[in-house]
Each structure stands twice: as structure tokens, then as C-alpha cells.
Amino acid sequence: MNFLILHAPILIIAIPLLAAFATLLISKISPKLRNIFVITVLSFVLFLVLLLAHQVYTSGMQVYVLGSNQTTVATPSGYSIPVRIMLTVDGASIFMAIITAIVSLVGAIYSLSFMKKYSGLDKYYTLLLLMSVGMFGMEFTGDMFNLFVFLEILSISSCALVAFWTHKGEPSEAAFKYMVLSCIGALFVLFATALFYGQYNALNIAMIASRMKYSLLDKIALGLLVAVFAMKCGAVPMHMWTPDAYSKAPAPITAMLVVASQASLYALFRGVFTLYNVTLNCLTVGWIIIILGVLSMFIGVTMALPQHDVKRLMAYHAISQTGYMLLGIGVGLAVLGDTNALNSYGLMAMKGGLFHIINHAMYKGLLFLTAGAIFYVTGTRDLNKMGGLAHKMPLTAIFFMIGALSIAGMPPFNGFASKIMIYESVYKFNPVLSILAMVVSILTLASFVKVFHSAFMGPQLPEYKNVKEVPKSMLIGMGILSFMIILFGVFPDIVVNTIVAPAANALVNQGSYITKILGGA
Amino acid sequence: MRGMSKIVRTITNILYSFIIIFGFYIIMHGHLTPGGGFQGGAVVASAFALLVVSYGALKIKDMLKAKNFSVSECSGLLAFIGLGFLGIGTVFFYNFLAGKGGLFGNVIYGINPGDLNTAGVLPLMNIAVGIEVLSGLTLIILYMFNANNPKEEK
């Protein structure tokens, strides 16, 4: 057990990586064996993540240094600065890793039935595992260059998965758009990394943070990083790839793409809070992120209202919900220098934003999976062609209702818990923002009432007379997420105190992050 | 796609084995000289590309089977990551063979004529990368020449 805990950070990244390529060989033996293998590996990774999470919450940040004999010492063998590749796992990293592990496992379970009739599944599962490698890597990395490497792994594997149904034509277009934007984005990250390296002779995040001077070059790097990661998480002026990629990808992949965009969100927060922290002009940068958030919220939801394609509609809602997270974190950043304001409402806003990340991954994942279930039985994503599905698919209808009420912020589901935290704390910062957020929430409810009505309510349509409830593995996938939603909605205080608060504290306390890696210096 | 003239095919017959040997030379000396697994693998793949171009995709499809290359590609990748896992007694990717003597563990000081038995797991990793790259690039070439769907060829 100690061995597992000690090596957990690298094992969480390396086991899916090994499994990804073993999957290709195992599928040549038997597809059934491959399915069991993939599920086993992802379950084991979830177990490791929970083990590591327990370790992080009890004994603080974990550091794993590659290439030396002492894995937990950041500067071994007499070096005064960290030169080696390093994985750092603090509250914020492990928080994101929990989300990634749960949704990857659910996505894989759901895929068992959903993707059954398609060919090329060996490559599908390989890419799915690689995608989770990319996400875990981005969340655990301790240096800027590996952030770029894992960002690329994530982008390439998710592009390939978006284009999985190539024969339909449109997925290729969506994937191409995503790929071009991701490549340009990744080059921006590389350029920003080069700017840091040129100035501070270091790639390690803690090292750069401790030497941060906020010069003109740092401002350029900050602009590049914020632009790229806001683009990758789908904030509004750069959101054009999101509806295409989300709606054209297979449903389990869409649920994972939501988490992939949140990994970028994490990278944005890591950059702003850990790299720069108080050296930057908090109020200005905070407001930039708030404005990005408000724009995403409002434009996302208004674009969602007129959609007929159920997955495209949900994709616009994903943009809109990302706005809430940016709003919460932006308020936290704007008051970062002001201790009183930070303690009275800034930290609460950040907790709300972070809590919304995990809630969003759960309910948006669930909604995309139900959309996939509808597509699975009807073969269409057009809302005008659906109707009366609740007669034949009661469980899917219930799951959809749980997801829809949660995204609209209805108690007792988890969306309510995080939204009320955001409303209350943002109201103290600026009442107008809070009111806007509530209006967006009402519009979200309106839009999902429409979807529920046109897909599930009404008389049974003759063309869907023979549809059946979706297969078991899809129901299990949706069931796990519904269970998490209700659990988080009923006991929000426990979740906030155990996993969200450490994440928020880890982001705010840049000093302890640096001290842990560089020592007392 | 049809093959090329007899001159090209004869030259290919003479050359391609040498290109493959040169590629493996670069892979094996990866830890001593410029180049390594990736570069050597690319050289080997270029020999297969030469075969495909000169003989045409139709004739070559029995000799170079995409399925075999797919298997060897995975094996290369698995070998690479597996070597990383073997070091986990100390740390992931630890060079557990270095300095242990034997086939890969000689310790060399100063100028030497190029002792191959050094650097621990590095030569093994170069070989793994070499296998992966040569099969990966060959697969790309085969798919590009549509060697798997000869029916569509005119």
C-alpha cells in the first residue's frame, strides 16, 4: 500500500498509457477481453486517485520527482534548483483528477453498449485511455513544458475521437476545426513557456513563480496563456469549436470532452494563481476573467435557446455553465490582494466556482449521455423529430430530468448547491453580476423544459413504437452520474469541506506551493 | 498504383537491404552517436517506402502486411513503457541497468572506440522506439498507398 501511495502520481499517468497500447494487442485476441481490460484499468486508476486523494488531504501536497533515487525530494543530489521532471499533486490537482477518473470510467462503461455496432473499437479505446492520460498529466504536471506535452496528447487524442464517425463527413470538419485551434493554442503555450525560460532559466512552475517579476514579457505570456486556455475551455469569444466538436463526437466522448475542457480551465487557474498570484494586477485580470465568464454565460444560453439539435443545444449550455466557473474564480482573483474581501466572500466565490466544475462534469456528462441514449434508439438528434420517448424509456427520462433540474439550479440537486454559493458571494462583490447569473439560470431551465417536452412528453410516435430502453451498461453509466449528482446535492457541505475547500486553498496559497518544492528558500 | 520500371526495381533490390541495415545501425548506436530510435526507425521505414514505390502497392501487399506492422508498433510502445515500469522499484523510468556490468551496464571513462555495452536501459529504449517508429511510419505509407484496398485501384 505504501508503495502504491508513493508512486501513485506516476502510476495514475503511466498505467492508462501502458494500457492504451496493450488494448490494441488485446483486441486482436478478443474484443470481450479488451472491454474487461479497459474497465479494470480505469477502475484501478480511480482507486489510485482516491488513495492519493486521501494521502493529499491528510498529509498535504505530494511531490514525485522522476529520474532520481529519492522520489519525494524536489531538489535531490545537491541541486539548489529543481531541474528534474516533477509531478506535483496538491488539493487543486487531485480535485480535477477525481473528476477525470470518474468521468473516464463512466464514459468507458457507457461505450461498451453504445459503440458496440461500430468497427475500429480497438483504436477507440486506445484513444479514450490516451485522453485520460492527457488530462491526468495536465493536472499533475509540475513544470510548464510537460503541461504543453500533455496538452498536445490530450488535443490529438480528442481530435481523433471527435472524428471517430468519419464516414458521416461532418465529424471530420468539426475535428479539423478543433485540431487547427488546438495546434495554434499549443504553440502559444510553448511560446509562453519559452518566454519564462528565457527570463528565469527555469521550467518548473514553483521556480518561475518564486522568481516572477511581472515584466512586460510576463504580461505577454499571461495574455497568451489566458487566451489559449480560455479558448480550450470554450469561453465565449473563442467558443466556435465547442458546439461542433461536442455535438459531432460520440456521446461518451462528449462527456469526456467536457472534462478535457475543464482540465484547460484548471491550467488557466494554475497559471493565474500559482504562477503569478499577487504579482499581477489582480483587479484587472480578475475583471477580464469575470467578463469572459459573463459573456460565456449569457451568449451561451441565448445561443442554446433556438437550437433544434439536442447535442448542439447542450454544447451551448456547456459554454454557458463554463461562464459560472470563470465568474466564481474571477471574483476570487479580483480580490486576491485584499485579505478582508478574500476571506469574507472571495474564497467562497472560488469554492463555488470549483464546486461548479465537479457538478458540471457530473450533470453535463449525464445530459450528454442521455442525449446519446436518445440518439441510440431514435438515430436522430433533431428535437422536432422526437416525442413520447418517456413511454418506452422511463429510466432515461428520469436521468434526463435529474440532469436538467441540476443544470437549471433546482434544489436538491448539485447544481443548486454550487450556484447558490456563486450567487451569494458574487452579490457582495457586484450585485449586477449575480442577477445576470440568475437570469441565465432561468433561461437554462426554460431551454431544458423545451428539450424534455419535445423529446420525452406527448403521445407515443408511430415511428418509435418498437424502441426499447437502452442496454444495461449505458444505464449503469448514467446511473453512476445521477447518483453522484444527488449525493452532492444532498450533502453539499461535506463535499465542499473535504474536496473543494482544499482545492481553493491550494490555489490561493501560492507560498506554500513554492515552499513545499523549493524548501525554505 | 502500378510499379515502376525494371531499372528502378533492380536498384531497389540491391539497395533496400543496406538501407535497413543502416537504419538498425543508427538505432543500435543511438546512445553513442547522433541519431537514435526515431531517426533509425525513419531510415528503415524509408526502405519499405522504396519497396512500395518501386513495386507498386498491389505487388507489395503480400510482403508487407499492415496487421503485422500494427502488432510490432504496439509491441514497441509497450516495450518502451514496460521498461519504464521495470524501474519503478526506485522511481518510474529509473535506469536500473546502469553500472551493473553485463550486456548493458559497462561503465566507461574517457575516450573509447565506442563500447556498445553501456548506458543501461537507454539502448533498449532506443530499440523500442526504433521498432515503434519503423512500423508506425510504414503503416502510414501503406495506408497512403491504399495497399489494403487494392480493389479500389485502377
Low-pLDDT runs of chain A = none
State the share of residues found in helices of chain B, binned by percent.
Answer: 55-70%
* Number of domain units of chain B: 1
Q: Count the strands of chain A?
A: 2
Helix run count of chain A: 19
Ends distance of chain B: 7 Å
Mean pLDDT over the full residue set of chain A: 87
Uncertain segments of chain B are: none
Percent range for β-strand residues of chain B: under 5%
Main sheet of chain A: which strands, in order across? 1-2
Question: What's the structural blueprint in terms of helices and strands?
Answer:
The complex is a heterodimer of chains A (521) and B (154).
Chain A: H1 2-29, H2 31-59, E1 62-65, E2 86-89, H3 91-114, H4 121-140, H5 144-162, H6 170-200, H7 205-211, H8 216-233, H9 241-248, H10 251-276, H11 282-304, H12 310-334, H13 339-378, H14 394-407, H15 414-429, H16 431-456, H17 472-490, H18 492-508, H19 510-518
Antiparallel strand pairs in A: 1-2
Chain B: H1 6-28, H2 37-55, H3 57-60, H4 66-86, H5 122-144
Helix pairs in contact in B: 1-2, 2-5, 4-5
Keywords:
heterodimer; A: about 525 residues; mainly alpha; two-stranded antiparallel ribbon; 19 helices; 2 strands; about 0% strand; B: about 150 residues; 5 helices; elongated
